[in-house]
């Protein structure tokens, strides 16, 4: 592990006291960053340790909005969201991710900024434009079963691994940040991530000194909420594909639809085209299938991950059908469908 | 299984708790990496090659050497003298030289080209990153298609012939309904919880190595061969092993490199592989192509069984897996034709992983047998029942015992095979599968020494290991029952090469081999005590009650004081008495076909939208002679069943064809079964001691649970969906493609 210095942040105002943010990383739960440092993939000169930042552990709630501190753990957030019908998606997604042990450590801000699980990103003997810009992409012609089919480029086909971020993308969450100069930004999570293009090493629009302080979610996602994750094994596996859906149907018409995909995009994938196609129309299986085709028209497999395109379509059509059918049977239903 | 799940009594068979359990749960059992010498331990970090083949043409270690804390950077240029890799040939693969950093040839991806030894792990790891080197790449040989495997291995694992058969296969296959299928299984790793770790200390005279290894005697031979040291100057200790699964049968790169570091620096050096390093620096199971042709009559009699296996063999390392063993033993047939071919490849070491041969052989073969049942419309339990071999199908030898019929009958009954209920719930469909397994039983020469002191405390010394299987406990039970003493009066000292040599752990031979040696040592000690008591040698039951020893039973019973007996033993008076026992394969070992057997039943649920398979329940019915401890035996068998789910549905070590390196080198991406993947697990043991197998009546169980268990899952997936995935593992994408 490369030697590094540590700055202990006690409050977000301490950002201004940090001498330099060059080759610096914020350390929250450490479930991803510490691994990456051990593997010498991340080699910061400085760690800004957030463990003493008490304020960021809070969840606050108003009638219309919840605000989740950056250091709220995935376990705490899942527990909170479980009791909020309009945040049901978030709870379902969090509980589908990782393991209890990891969720106890992992934080809201850290989860958003976790790196890809691309095998070649993790193997420092291999070409990876994300890890070492300009070195090439070993995944393009290599094993790419877990890679993205949406939003990729010829320089990078890595997928974003987060379940939580997928649910937040569907719920149109807002990321609150502050930088060393004290400037505050409110960034829609749907705009937080940049596409790889020819700069796959740049993954978000955050500055080096810009700290995620909180995530807020308006309580506007109406109706039935479903997060379905398809994975190789039943726990401790990243999504092959996942669908985050909140749907409100009134008199057979889709009034409100929130839709995002995980496991398939270079970023948590906001299925805007599908949303636009579905909204205001009569909820039928034929419509769901067409909406899937609309969103997936730009999807591109790289060989090993070709299956993700039909798998996503099947899963999406199934999830939309389930939500619509539940809405039609229970017109005012909010939140998760609890079977059994 | 016995209804009792806990026992205070430590007689043979009792479901007694592990005697080492409390040490393990308290963290007091010291594993290889936790043992410290008096001198501070330095830490070594392995730098592995980026490519699978070639020549190291330049290496510059100056920057690494200049780093804080770095004690040495060792390459082929400054490593101690070693015997070339693989020499001497007649020592067998676990006793030969495993020289490292000995020349410039790159043998496989991740092959160590330097060891950085520093005060701390972090210093060593960072310094290793600063080493600059150049490799002139060579051609990479990999097994890319089954027909490329055209080398006939000298023999296959287990000592079998590469080719074996009986009858006229062509006419047998021409008769009845014929099935031709090609199955593939992927590369797999053992995935032991404890990564391979060693601490070596050469003090100028003796080389002492704490390592995590399953067999100690051959580990000493290996170090002796590698470093040209006399065996009596080498001591290997491995009292606790955090899982072996075949990957620790021999010593691996961690041990050799730790020794190199210590020989050079004459200080203790620890080399612990990181999880990622285990994938390249320890052995794995090679992928297999299994081409099968099977035929059967409409009334369900198997006519012909043809099984042709193609696998990779690592260059300079003659290990070929016996993938065809299931096809050779599971059923009678008019003709059997089994063939193994290999291709020599530039690959990390290929060796035993969890039931070599049986695990992946039974997976493909018992899946194909299921296809044959479907082709002739026969119930797969009845079909298997009707084709059980009355004698060994190839040799004609009688079985010592064979309870496969009872395993199938009682297993089917307990599982409810006849009453199986098909359900569709939402998108989920369930299905049921069955398969069988036959696992060869062997005895490996073993020795043990038992000592009793004047207080009636017993100590057993043998270089046997406990790799999580329960050796400490069953050996305790053998002594406890023989002398009628409680477990707390018995100490089992394992995992020290200075003790009498044993089989070690592996091949399901450990319990019977080391157990019989201990039993024989007990008998020898009893005979010696009888002699000291002035009684006819060896006939008496000898039971201890504290310091009193009772000889015989009933009217002729007599009691002696232990201290007095020991005083009789010699001049000057002794305060303890020892005896040795040993076991070797006897004539019954060759005369009879010795197998333990299994019938596996599984119910799965398949999501017909996504292709995801979830296991609802697994039931196994097993027969393995006498059970030494129903609790540890049950745990081992269940563990094997879990691995069955794991390799049928999840495990897949992907190899990049461009450079021969493994791709998914961590437990996040190399998927094995996790808790949530396992449904209800149940088992029955049909217990019948087999005294032709060994004096204890026990047979191997270590690899029995895994043998056949995966195929039951695979067959259940087909039953649920009509989708037959012949390229394992059965992942959701492959199931979905057939839906």
From TrEMBL, chain B:
Coiled coil: none annotated. It comes from the Bacteria. Residues 26-139 form the Aldehyde oxidase/xanthine dehydrogenase a/b hammerhead domain. GO terms for molecular function: iron ion binding; oxidoreductase activity. InterPro entries: Ald_Oxase/Xan_DH_a/b, Ald_Oxase/Xan_DH_a/b_sf, Ald_Oxase/xanthine_DH-like, AldOxase/xan_DH_MoCoBD1, AldOxase/xan_DH_MoCoBD2, AldOxase/xan_DH_Mopterin-bd_sf. SUPFAM superfamilies: CO dehydrogenase molybdoprotein N-domain-like, Molybdenum cofactor-binding domain. Pfam families: Ald_Xan_dh_C (PF01315), MoCoBD_1 (PF02738), MoCoBD_2 (PF20256). Gene3D superfamilies: Aldehyde oxidase/xanthine dehydrogenase, a/b hammerhead (3.90.1170.50), Aldehyde oxidase/xanthine dehydrogenase, molybdopterin binding domain (3.30.365.10). Signal peptide: none annotated. This is Xanthine dehydrogenase family protein molybdopterin-binding subunit.
